[in-house]
């Protein structure tokens, strides 16, 4: 239906801003009015300028800026960060390879029309930026298979990105034919400074703000198999507000620590100032919660982030599909809907492996008194005598459980393991639910599966890549 093509206005604004920033250097270079060099060399410069601009924009796509992630959601923000990063890497890879002109300097050639005029220093910084970027990209892609802790990876990713930015700036100002004009220099210096400031903002300014509004753990208790409920409360009056379904970055112990972890808020906005999380044991941080988040432990929040939220969306019925700990944001949404007196029909399909993993069963039953709510439990390894659904959530199950909702323009929320989200997105699409009516949130950003949403993102990225290439070619042929 037409709904498939409904694009959120926030996304349009971001894309326009992105294209403006990423194209600015080439356009400024064009306006310089110098005679073009051979096609290959002009193309190489055009792609390099575009790539450097994209890399600087990547700093804002780190997931820590609400102005970016609020309109488009954290899933799309991180996916764009990954894909645009790869696009820039391809352009940067080609940059030194594509040149045909000699490197030498020729003082008589004012506009460097026949030589590249690379100084040794510019060659060195160019090489550093190129190599570090390739390593960064490679590490980011194979991260899960590397024997390093997530925190180690993130630290090296941040430091590496800063090195690439600074080395690229030096290389560009020193070697860039189109960086000699005042406006171009001003653009590069300002944009690089902004990118570096974003790191200062995230790792220094924000922590200072967090230190000023500390929380402490009120209670940490085991509520299901390998799943913990953590309740925190602010130490002083707090202005923290969120929309049901959003998440925060949580840091425990000291506000100076660099490492923080994203967790969905499981409580409703009406439960503030208390905030509840439902956390599943995964790796080192979440493996030792009774100690790490023992009652009294200071914790610090950055957020809220994300748009896994009901408000500002249209739908005749609300369908929540949660897998395992994906119940956390769904609980928040349900609690929020109950307080808000929601009257539309709400369905929760809650999938787990075993019955011991089910969280908040009693409360889910009781929520039915305040909401027009149906809860369906699904177990892939049901105990003897289980009367609920079995197996995995699939199209046949959806047709059975939400037949009426599927016909009534439902608003669907999906949260759980990545393979579950991917398959549910595919099924919903096959059942005729437009992509724009499906909101999903992945707890890991190792996406890339063949889903309708991913195909849409791929098409969008191909369009952006084509726009960049078209501009670079037009610039080279001018
Ligand atoms: C938006 C969002 C909301 C989330 N909400 C919840 C929730 O409500 N309940 C819950 O149990 N889990 C949630 N998670 C997942 C949770 O953040 C990870 O399970 C946790 O950070 C794992 O840390 P670890 O050290 O225990 O495990 P590790 O073994 O170190 O990590 C396991 C995997 O988790 C991811 N991860 C680890 N550390 C981080 C980090 N600092 N930042 C981002 N990702 C990381 C990586 O993909 C890593 O491969 C959420 C994740 C995201 C992105």
Topology:
Layout: H1 9-31, H2 39-58, H3 66-72, H4 74-98, H5 120-142, H6 150-175, H7 182-212, E1 215-224, E2 227-234, E3 247-252, E4 261-264, E5 275-280, H8 284-287, H9 289-292, E6 298-305, E7 317-323, H10 327-340, E8 346-352, H11 361-367, E9 373-379, E10 389-390, H12 395-401, H13 403-407, E11 410-416, H14 418-430, E12 438-442, H15 452-476
Parallel strand pairs: 7-8, 7-11, 8-9, 9-10, 11-12
Antiparallel strand pairs: 1-2, 1-6, 2-5, 3-4, 3-6
Helix pairs in contact: 1-2, 1-7, 1-15, 2-4, 2-6, 2-7, 2-15, 3-4, 4-5, 5-6, 6-7
Bound molecules: flavin-adenine dinucleotide.
Verbal overview:
This protein is of the alpha/beta class. The chain is 49% helix and 16% strand. The two termini are 42 Å apart. Helix 2 runs parallel beside helix 7. Strand 3 (247-252) and strand 4 form a beta hairpin. It has 15 helices and twelve strands. The chain is elongated and about 85 Å long. It folds into three domains: 2-208 and 460-476, no CATH class; 211-305, Translation factors (Elongation Factor Tu (Ef-tu), domain 3, Beta Barrel), CATH 2.40.30.10; 317-449, Nucleotide-binding domain of ferredoxin-NADP reductase (FNR) module (Rossmann fold, 3-Layer(aba) Sandwich), CATH 3.40.50.80. The structure holds flavin-adenine dinucleotide. Flavin-adenine dinucleotide (FAD) binds at residues 74, 144, 149-150, 247, 259, 261-264, 277-280, 282-287, 306, 325, 328, 441, 443-444.
Question: Quick recap of the structure?
Answer:
This protein has 478 residues and is an alpha/beta fold.
Helix count from the secondary structure assignment: 15
Count of domain modules: 3
Based on secondary structure, the structural category is alpha/beta
**Which kinds of small molecule does this entry bind, naming each only once?**
flavin-adenine dinucleotide
Helix and strand pattern? HHHHHHHEEEEEHHEEHEHEEHHEHEH
């Amino acid at each position: 239906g037409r709904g498939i093509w409904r694009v959120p206005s926030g996304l349009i604004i971001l894309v326009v801003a992105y294209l403006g920033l990423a194209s600015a250097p080439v356009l400024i270079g064009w306006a310089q009015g110098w005679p073009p060099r051979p096609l290959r060399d002009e193309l190489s410069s055009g792609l390099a300028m575009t790539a450097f601009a994209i890399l600087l924009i990547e700093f804002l796509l780190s997931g820590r800026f609400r102005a970016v992630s609020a309109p488009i959601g954290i899933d799309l923000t991180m996916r764009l960060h990954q894909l645009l990063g790869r696009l820039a890497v391809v352009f940067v890879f080609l940059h030194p390879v594509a040149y045909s002109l000699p490197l030498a300097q020729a003082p008589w050639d004012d506009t460097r029309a026949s030589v590249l005029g690379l100084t040794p220093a510019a060659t060195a910084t160019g090489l550093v930026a190129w190599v570090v970027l390739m390593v960064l990209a490679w590490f980011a892609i194979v991260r899960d298979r590397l024997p390093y802790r997530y925190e180690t990876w993130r630290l090296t990713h941040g430091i590496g990105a800063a090195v690439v930015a600074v080395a690229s700036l030096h290389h560009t100002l020193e070697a860039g034919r189109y960086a000699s004009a005042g406006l171009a220099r001003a653009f590069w210096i300002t944009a690089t400074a902004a990118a570096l400031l974003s790191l200062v903002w995230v790792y220094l300014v924000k922590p200072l703000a967090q230190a000023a509004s500390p929380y402490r753990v009120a209670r940490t208790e085991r509520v299901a198999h390998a799943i913990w409920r953590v309740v925190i409360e602010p130490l002083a009056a707090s202005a923290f507000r969120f929309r049901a379904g959003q998440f925060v970055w949580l840091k425990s112990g000291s506000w100076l620590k660099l490492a923080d972890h994203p967790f969905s808020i499981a409580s409703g906005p009406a439960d503030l100032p208390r905030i509840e999380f439902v956390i599943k044991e995964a790796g080192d941080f979440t493996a030792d919660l009774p100690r790490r988040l023992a009652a009294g432990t200071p914790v610090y929040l950055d957020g809220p982030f994300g748009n896994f939220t009901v408000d500002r969306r249209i739908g005749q019925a609300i369908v929540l599909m949660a897998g395992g700990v994906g119940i956390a944001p769904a609980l928040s949404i349900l609690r929020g809907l109950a307080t808000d007196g929601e009257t539309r029909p709400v369905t929760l399909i809650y999938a787990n492996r075993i019955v011991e993993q089910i969280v908040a069963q009693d409360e889910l039953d009781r929520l039915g008194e305040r909401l027009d709510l149906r809860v369906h439990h699904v177990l892939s390894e049901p105990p003897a005598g289980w009367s609920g659904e079995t197996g995995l959530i699939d199209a046949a199950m959806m047709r059975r459980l939400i037949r009426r909702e599927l016909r009534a323009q439902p608003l669907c929320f999906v949260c759980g393991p990545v393979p579950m989200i991917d398959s549910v997105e595919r099924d919903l699409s096959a059942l005729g639910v437009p992509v724009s009516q499906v909101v999903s949130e992945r707890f890991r950003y190792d996406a890339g599966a063949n889903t309708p949403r991913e195909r849409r993102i791929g098409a969008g990225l191909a369009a952006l890549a084509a726009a960049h290439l078209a501009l670079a070619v037009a610039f080279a042929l001018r």
